[in-house]
């Protein structure tokens, strides 16, 4: 048995070699990170939109910021909210846009002779009823020791809902339930429509140490954004094997009115957010 196993490995090892890949760079594209939020219990109107550009495939530096853009958001009542570029390159801000339920918002960006546009309606979300710490529940990344940040909430009955969760520990946002699987924590309400959701641990593999300050955010997202994040997770979690999803450019919801063949990368969303905070004692 050992001889057979050794004979299989030897040809595989002999075939391994380094290949230099010559990749043709495509046109520079605008990348948009635009999330307008209405946080439960807050009346503030501060919003920010980050604009950058695509860079070289093999570059080891952050993508360049998109400077000098004109950024404007309007709603379906005719109100306009101009965004001004801040001291941070590529970050555009306003302090006067308090997102409201039942509104539709249009994002318009003029940059380097091109006009980009996206439109989204406010997606509501139910509140987190409580945040506490409990032993791990059974799950893929749950582990056995320590405690996890745990929430109770309730899904509204008779409507289709999609959720996104973020968790901050001592001010640091986590990327996923472990250090390898870089997933956004998202879910539809298919199995819980109208039901209480008790003892849910969005970041099931993260042990919360005594004294840690934890913030959990529950965001309502559209079905289109849910599918976008689902496809994005497939892309970033690929390991290069024959079973991985082939790399591809994800299509967001921000079109290029000047050159429709080159839409912006990224996504424009408008959401309600419920936040809960607790300290591990």
How are the SSEs placed, and which strands pair?
Layout: H1 2-14, E1 30-39, E2 47-53, E3 70-75, E4 80-85, E5 91-94, E6 104-111, E7 114-121, E8 128-134, E9 148-154, E10 162-169, E11 172-173, E12 185-188, E13 196-200, E14 213-221, H2 223-236, E15 255-256, E16 265-279
The domain tally reads 2
Would you tell me the structural class of the helices and strands?
mainly beta
Main pleated sheet? 13 strands, mixed
Could you say which overall geometry the principal axes of the C-alpha atoms support? globular
In terms of DSSP E residues, the strand content is 35-45%
**Rg from C-alpha positions?**
22 Å
Give helix % range.
under 10%
CATH topology of the largest domain: Immunoglobulin-like
Mean pLDDT: 88
Question: Which features does this protein show?
Answer:
Immunoglobulin-like; 13-stranded mixed beta sheet; mainly beta; 2 helices; 16 strands; 2 domains
What would you say this structure looks like, in words?
This protein has helices at 2-14, 223-236, and strands spanning 30-39, 47-53, 70-75, 80-85, 91-94, 104-111, 114-121, 128-134, 148-154, 162-169, 172-173, 185-188, 196-200, 213-221, 255-256, 265-279. With 281 residues, it is mainly beta. It has two helices and 16 strands. The strands form two sheets. Strands 1, 2, 3, 4, 5, 6, 7, 10, 11, 12, 14, 15 and 16 form a 13-stranded mixed sheet that branches. The chain folds into two domains: 30-123 and 249-272, Immunoglobulin-like (Sandwich), CATH 2.60.40; 128-221, no CATH class. The model is unreliable at 1-12 (pLDDT under 50).
